[in-house]
Amino acid sequence: xxxxxxxxxxxxxxxLDDQGLPEDVAVRxxxxxxxxxxxxxxxxxxxxxxxxxxxxxxxxDAQVSELLTEDxxxxxxxxxxLEHPQEGE
Length: 89
Hints:
Elements: E1 3-4, H1 6-18, E2 25-32, E3 35-42, E4 48-52, E5 55-60, H2 62-67, E6 72-76, E7 79-83
Parallel strand pairs: 1-6, 2-5
Antiparallel strand pairs: 2-3, 4-5, 6-7
């Protein structure tokens, strides 16, 4: 399963709050081109969810969850980064 750092979950919560979105809206990783992108969406049955406090901040469907299973979502500066493990790690 994707690992999300405390800093990344706090950043997602801040982004959602800054945009004034309802509490039932979170960020979702979606396939786009050859990679993934972040979109605003609501939770659906079967989603993997990530929380920051009581707020759901990140949603993954089963396919994206499988794709990101060994990755870590973190923050570098003010930017979210998706880190892929190197072979042999």
